[in-house]
Write a structure and sequence with these properties.
Helix content: over 70%
Keywords: Membrane, Transmembrane, Transmembrane helix
Number of strands: 0
Largest sheet: none
Order of helices and strands: HH
Shape: rod-shaped
Strand content: under 5%
Number of helices: 2
Structural class: mainly alpha
Length: 50
């Protein structure tokens, strides 16, 4: 299978699609940290109001 083979291009496209889908499915670590901080902060504020 040479570099210009249509079959090679098909394999490359399939691998690229898998990588792109994996990136879309996961939430970045920074976003997770921010969400957790907001949630903990909101719970702390609510607990002090009681």
């Amino acid at each position: 299978m040479g570099c210009c083979s249509p079959e090679y291009r098909k394999v490359v496209n399939e691998q690229e699609a898998k990588i792109n889908q994996k990136e879309k499915d996961s939430i970045p670590l920074l976003a997770k940290i921010i969400i957790v901080n907001i949630t903990v902060g909101a719970l702390a504020i609510l607990s002090f109001q009681l």
